[in-house]
From TrEMBL:
SUPFAM superfamilies with a match to the protein in the record: S-adenosyl-L-methionine-dependent methyltransferases
Protein name (record): Class I SAM-dependent methyltransferase
Taxonomic classification: Bacteria, Bacillati, Actinomycetota, Actinomycetes, Propionibacteriales
Amino acid sequence: MGNGDSRTETLRSVRVTDDGIFVRAQQDRVVDVLFDGRRIGSFWLERDTREAGEERLYPWPDALRRFLDGTTTLSLVDHVDDLELFSEEVALGEGDEERIRVEDANGNPLGLDKSLRLMRLFESRSPEHVKPLLDSMEAVLTALEQSGVEPFIAYGTLLGAVRDGELIGHDSDADLGYVSAHDHPADVILESFRLQRTLVEQGFAVTRYSGIAFKVLVEESDGARRGLDVFGGFMRDGMLYLMGEVGHPFRPEWVRPRSQVTLEGRSFPAPAAPEHLLEAMYGPTWQVPDPAYKFETPRSTVRRLNGWFRGTRVGREQVWDKFYSRGPQAVGKDGPSAFVRWVRESEPDMRTAVDVGCGVGRDATWLARGDVNAWGLDFVGRAFRKQARRVARQNLPARFLWANLSELRSVLVTGALLAREPGPRIVLARHVADATDETGRAHLLRLARMVAAHDGRLYVQVQTERTPEGGERGERGVKPLDVDAFLAQVRELGGRVLERHDLVVDDGDEVPAGSADPTICRLVITWSP
């Protein structure tokens, strides 16, 4: 690898393959990855890698993989010290003589942001390219001010202004914020919706993604359409809550009266003491550049912000929205699953079936064709929208309902509604428990207990081991589940297991495991005496 003595203090070896970058590191440092001298992304040598024998592996981010076919001079540079730790010509993919170019369709350079998305980063933009963004920021800040709040630049935009007076090179967007004069979440929400209406009346397009956070869409002078995030916040009981990531002890005099900071040669409003807000956002080391920064918001803050403001969007993964936006042809084969056929054979007397995580609704529709009162639940409404219209035209006994297992209020309302349906009531959850977190699994069990009490049951199918194909829906969020831990949750909520079936997938069919290691587990759970 050809490192000098000073470099070996950080890295002992580097090896680059199609899987990623293998390193042996002496200490956890943030390094930039350069292709032919241009930064592509950054990672921490320990935090962002995983064990791989005696080495640690930084796997290539998914967004980058389609570009990795050709040759490049790959360098690793200490981001803070700007010290080159490694540089070597490497061949990836077919390894032809074409140089690897990470660019968009128009030849604009792309880089990985902190969320591992490929974006046009500020470090690759000229002052002429940045000017429309700054103009848009000024326009939206003025509009917010005229609407009755005291806005300021926030998050990475504020960080760049305070630290260097410039936009952060590895950033790709701009953030704005404000702290409401109200101290009750309901009043702050009402104010946020009033702001939205006022901005729309001024000609701005606005999209909302929580009770006090929205995006203002601005058409810039170069014709590009940009979204500026506006994060609302408020003070209560000595705490500042600012949408996104902040729930931190704060003083009112750190917010108002606002100060001014310089960004790219222009003056922008900031909180009275911006350094205190930056510490609340990025911790006490906010002055040290970290292009691979990850927010580690305390669970208590996440729960408060979720409960107050995120509501229906809690836990919603964009991957499912994008997946179902491609249409039913992306979902796979037609017809019911082997799982629902098994449930139907096991429950010949069922009157009501509740398919949790129904997706496009094929299993629920199949049950309805067999004269079962079928309900399909999913938290991506576009998934079942077309099927809901189809069954309505055919007058089938199937209905579809939005529900979110990560939102307790949604679970309780849905459970109360479905508990009134005729019994026996059977709940189906095929690759749901293994596609959510511990909270989602607990809420699944609560929902099933409400619906299937007395004479009903819960039928579950989960993946227990990763298969060579990635599992039935592995690339879309399903991960192998620790069944014993899940069964402990079942017992905690008063349930008991009537049946357990360990299976393998053979040519697309689910068959008893026999001597093979099982990859699928089916459970039948009851809360009846």
